[in-house]
Design goal:
Helices cover about 45% and strands about 20% of the residues. By secondary structure, the chain is an alpha/beta fold. It is globular, with a radius of gyration of 17 Å.
């Protein structure tokens, strides 16, 4: 029987981040959990594609946009389970046991990991703590926490949408709190944007953007505000 998980990683000019992201997946390969790794990329002049292909990943290429890239990766995935992972996120080794147990018992539930930042600042721990509390109480994890979901459930809810922002909030809403489990393993993500903008400032800005999204704000306008185009 083939391994169950297709890992899907959106990447753009990610030559610095991709090697570490891939290396933290090795325990899953050794445990026989990973069927394939798909890097959903965008044409660029750096070594992202070379790194992905040298590691044995499947490279799929097309338009930029995280929602678009996640959707594109899922379209070619062959696994019974899909693990969506940001390129700047590292999974702790415990992810294997957590994912294996979840797959064995929770086909009708998706799973996300507990969030931590690769920073020792108290502000980083505070922001991560709020994110984990939000995830548990509201069933609303962000993409930095990864998403493990069966192909059956993914297709049933319509998968990722090709939107310029809030693709993670959109799919979490459609999954619903009752069909989401927080897995006992940690996803450690970069805090580069938070460090550049200020931890508390970026946290409150994100909350404001999500509130605007729930009130029906235009996604292009939200993306412009988020990326400061």
């Amino acid at each position: 029987m083939p391994a169950p998980i297709s890992v899907i990683i959106p990447a753009f000019k990610s030559a610095e981040d991709l090697p570490a992201c891939l290396s933290h997946l090795f325990p899953g390969l050794e445990a026989g959990l990973i069927r394939e790794v798909i890097v959903s990329g965008v044409p660029s002049n750096d070594a992202t594609r070379d790194i992905a292909e040298a590691a044995g990943a499947v490279w799929v290429e097309g338009e930029k946009g995280r929602g678009t890239q996640l959707k594109r990766g899922a379209e070619v995935a062959r696994g019974e389970w899909l693990l969506f992972l940001h390129v700047d996120t590292w999974l702790d080794p415990a992810w294997c046991g957590a994912a294996k147990a979840h797959i064995a018992s929770e086909e009708e539930k998706a799973g996300a990991f507990q969030l931590a930042f690769r920073s020792t600042l108290w502000r980083a721990r505070w922001v991560a703590g709020l994110a984990n509390l939000r995830s548990r109480l509201l069933g609303m994890p962000y993409g930095d926490q990864g998403l493990l979901i069966s192909r059956t459930l993914y297709d049933r809810i319509g998968g990722y949408h090709a939107v310029p922002l809030m693709e993670d909030v959109s799919i979490a809403r459609r999954i619903g709190r009752g069909r989401l489990a927080i897995l006992p393993a940690i996803a450690r993500t970069s805090g580069a944007r938070q460090e550049a903008d200020g931890w508390l400032k970026r946290s409150f800005q994100n909350i404001w953007l999500v509130a605007r999204y729930f009130c029906g704000a235009d996604l292009q306008a939200l993306a412009k505000a988020y990326y400061r185009e």
